[in-house]
Amino acid sequence: MIDKAIEFATKVHEGQFRKGTSRPYIVHPIEVSDIVATMTEDEEIISAAVLHDTIEDCESVTAEVLEREFGPRVAGMVALESEDKSKTWKERKGATIRFIKTAPREVQMIGLADKLSNMRDIDRDYPVHGEELWNRFRMKSKQAIAWYYKGVRDSLKDTFAGVPAYEEYCRLVVKNFGENEEHEPE
Question: Which of 15, 49, 63, 182 could cross-link 36 (Cys pair, CB 3.0–4.6 Å)?
């Protein structure tokens, strides 16, 4: 099933790149699935991790398509992990921070892995691009990005404290955004 998910995601993400880079987008969902695989051997969760951005970022993909291809459990996890793009950035990110705190554990795993992959990209690119890096994001604000990643960290603490992926995430958040508390962006 994981191989099928990788093939599917590679096809539907074709031509997409990581924000502000020439890196093919598919490297992100593959990394997310690799991180999830450090927390579980459940092939459906790992497959959902590979597919986590398909509903959100690929016009041809719906929950129904994923259910037909991968079953209701995988489709359900991807749907729960997907943001409503009709909302503003602040509304979407605030909803994610609130939802992930009480989401099913498998959805929390995918969310953690997704954000850890993003933080690895930030950690790799920030020393190279400096403050210019924040311009590749919709909010173009380090403070807003910090608010979001710290909010996710705090929401996942009770469930994942001590888990290596979570601990790495926390280290990268502090390294790139500092320890101080961030206020919700205007």
Answer: 49
Give tens-digit pLDDT for 36-58: 999 999 999 999 999 999 998 88
Decide: 35 and 113 in contact? Cβ < 8 Å. yes
| Amino acid making up residue 88 | T
Catalytic residue of the set 56, 67, 69, 168 = 56
Is residue 138 predicted with pLDDT exceeding 90?
no
Whether 123 sits among the annotated catalytic residues: the reply is no
Enter the pTM of the model. 0.94
Highest mean pLDDT of the ranges 85-94, 133-142, 170-179:
170-179
DSSP state of 41: -
A 10 A CB-CB count for 176 gives 18
pLDDT of residue 184: 65
Helices 2-12 and 63-70: crossing angle in degrees, nearest 10, is: 150
Any idea which residue has 């996942």 for tokens?
Answer: 156
| 34, 42, 43, 57: the active-site residue | 57
DSSP one-letter string for 17-34? B-TTSSSBTTHHHHHHHH
